[in-house]
Each structure stands twice: as C-alpha cells, then as structure tokens.
Design a protein that fits this description.
Blueprint: H1 2-18, H2 26-29, E1 30-42, E2 47-49, E3 57-63, E4 65-81, E5 85-107, E6 111-134, E7 140-162, E8 174-175, E9 178-196, E10 199-214, E11 216-217, E12 227-241
Antiparallel strand pairs: 1-4, 1-12, 2-3, 3-5, 4-5, 5-6, 6-7, 7-9, 8-11, 9-10, 10-12
C-alpha cells in the first residue's frame, strides 16, 4: 500500500503540472473527476518452472478471479463540440486494490504437495479521450471513453503451503516486484449534468487490460520466473465531476 500511495501523490503532482501546459481557461474548460467503484479481475498463468539438475515444477492456477474496490482521479479539458457530441481530453488514473491468485505446485511433474498464492494490485495512468453524446435532455449525456498508458503492477505476498501435513517443506522461491506494463481502458456509461451547480454525476462500465506482471527469483537454482499472465478487469465506476 505504501508504494501505491506514493504513486497516487506523484500523480496528483502530474495533474498540477498538466494544468500549466494547456493554454485554456481552466476555470471554464477544465474538470476534475473523483471516482470510486468495484472491479472483478481475471489473471494467473499456469506454467513450468525450470530448476537446475531437476525436471522442475508445474505451477497450476485453481483460482484466478477476484474482486475488490477501486478509486480514480482524472482531469479533463473540454475539446471540440459538434451537433451530436462533444469531446474531452485528459489524464485518468486509477488504483485497483489487491486481489489474489491461488494454485498448486506439481513437483517434478509427479507430486502435488504444495499450494501457493500471491497478491496483485494495479495503478494504471491513461491519456484519455471522452465522447459525450448529446440526448434530447441537456441534463443527460451518454459517455464513451478510451484510454492508453502505463500500468504499475505490483505483485506481493507470494506464499507456499504444504498439502501433506508439513512433510514437504515450502520453498518460497519467488518474491514480489513492481512491473511497468502497457495498459488500455474502454468504457461506456451516462452522465447527469449540473446536479449541484457545476457538479455532475458519471456512472458506467469500464474494461481494463492491465498487462502481465512477474516475480523476482529468490534462488539461483531457478532458471525462469513466475508470471501473472495477462490481467483483465471489469469494473462499475461512478464519479463526481467538479
């Protein structure tokens, strides 16, 4: 969590700097959006781990789905306005709280004597474009969003447990690390305009592609490392635009 909070404050600094870049009247054209919601993740990868002078271990996945909360902060500048829709461009960052992956370890392709688990959390930052489709009511817009950017994926708390009452000793041959991956996000939803002054409510569905993370090897006997596989998240998010 300390790493994610550090990045969160770093992003706030980026937002402050970005407001100095665009030669626009930010009071009229700039909007901050504060977001919160929940997400459901899909991740985990079955793979073979090679070990010097041994056949190696097969890491299988028994549970690769999970759910948790997310929060986000964005800053958007109004763009071109057309008859049917108007555009907005900006930066949108999210923190997707920890979910876990669980599986078993088949040692030497023979004995399933260990289980394992680890945690994954994400901090994607997107250059984002929004299209606000006008409706018959000025109080209601349809929203489509598309974003691309880096995701800071943190793996942690890799643990193994014996499945035979402690006869097989745990190795814990991996430890967590932070990996920077390319990420994409798309969303659809609706916006209720000017509910309280300039404040508006925006809610909808977002799909995240979060890339693939990995672990550090804790032993020189291990020839390759464990990966998370490609991570995806389905989310329902609501935000207040100020």
């Amino acid at each position: 969590m300390r790493l994610s909070i550090h990045k969160f404050f770093y992003f706030i600094c980026l937002l402050v700097i970005s407001t100095q870049v665009f030669p626009l009247n930010l009071k009229e054209d700039g909007h901050v959006i504060v977001q919160a919601g929940g997400y459901w993740s899909s991740q985990g990868k079955s793979q073979h781990i090679n070990i010097i002078d041994l056949i190696g271990d097969d890491f299988t996945v028994t549970r690769g789905t999970g759910s948790n909360g997310l929060m986000g902060l964005g800053y958007f500048i109004d763009g071109q306005s057309y008859k049917l829709f108007k555009m907005a461009f900006g930066v949108n960052a999210f923190y997707l709280a920890k979910t876990s992956v669980q599986g078993t370890v088949v040692q030497e392709n023979l004995f399933t004597n260990l289980s394992y688990r680890y945690d994954v959390e994400h901090f994607p930052i997107y250059a984002s474009a929004k299209s606000l489709v006008k409706t018959n009511s000025p109080k209601f817009d349809l929203v489509m969003e598309l974003g691309f950017g880096p995701n800071f994926m943190r793996t942690s708390h890799f643990e193994e447990q014996s499945l035979d009452g402690g006869i097989t000793l745990v190795d814990n041959i991996f430890s967590g690390r932070t990996t920077t991956t390319w990420s994409a996000m798309g969303g659809v939803g609706f916006k209720l305009n000017d509910l309280l002054g300039r404040a508006s409510l925006e809610c909808g569905y977002k799909l995240f592609y979060l890339g693939e993370g990995s672990f550090n090897r804790n032993s020189d006997q291990v020839l390759n490392t464990l990966h998370t596989g490609n991570s995806y998240a389905n989310a329902f998010v609501c935000g207040v635009t100020l």
